[in-house]
Amino acid sequence: MTLIVEDGSGRIDAESYISVARADAHHAAYGNSAWAGAATTDKEAALRRAARHLDGSYGARLLGTQKTADQALAWPRYGVEAAGDTPLPGNLEQAAAEAALRALEADLAPDRSPETVIDEKRTTVGPLTTAIGFRDTSMRGPEYPLIDQLMAPFLRRRPRNRVVRA
């Protein structure tokens, strides 16, 4: 199945933010040999998973609004300008390429098991007992700092809590 790349028009059938050829060029520039050794069909599948991951992980916090109501992916967007020779921002394409590289090796969003209590301390003072449990957080899921950095310019800033005197 041929990969359908978003062309900036808000396609209803788009599956990826970047073509295999552009992802190949990106990874060649950074010396990512794992990408070069993969079959084209595996690269296409990884690029589809990367687009799904970017939309799922960042979509709710993206600046602007979708160009059309029925487009398949979160991009293109009104209120966010692309620069260069592509209809989508370069950082978005780079983030898609980097996510696809990781998708070749592992699931980008693996199912997680509930956290388990690995240690619990109980303290009793008179009739009161308190328990503090320490949870195993190793199943939180993977983090991708480079992808976070590439997507940061397109994300709404999280509001800071302010203390105001009455």
Task: Identify the notable features of this structure and list them briefly.
166 residues, single chain, 4 strands, two-stranded antiparallel ribbon, two-stranded antiparallel sheet, alpha+beta
**Average of per-residue pLDDT values:** 85
Strand percentage lies at: 5-15%
Roughly what percent helix? 25-40%
Q: What distance lies between the first and last C-alpha atoms, to the nearest angstrom?
A: 62 Å
Report the C-alpha radius of gyration, rounded: 21 Å
Helix count from the secondary structure assignment: 5
Count of strand segments: 4
> How is the largest sheet built, in terms of strand order?
1-2
Q: Which structural class best describes the helix and strand composition? A: alpha+beta
**N-to-C series of helices and strands:** HHHEEHEEH
Task: Pick out the low-confidence regions.
Answer: none
Biggest β-sheet description: 2 strands, antiparallel
Shape: extended
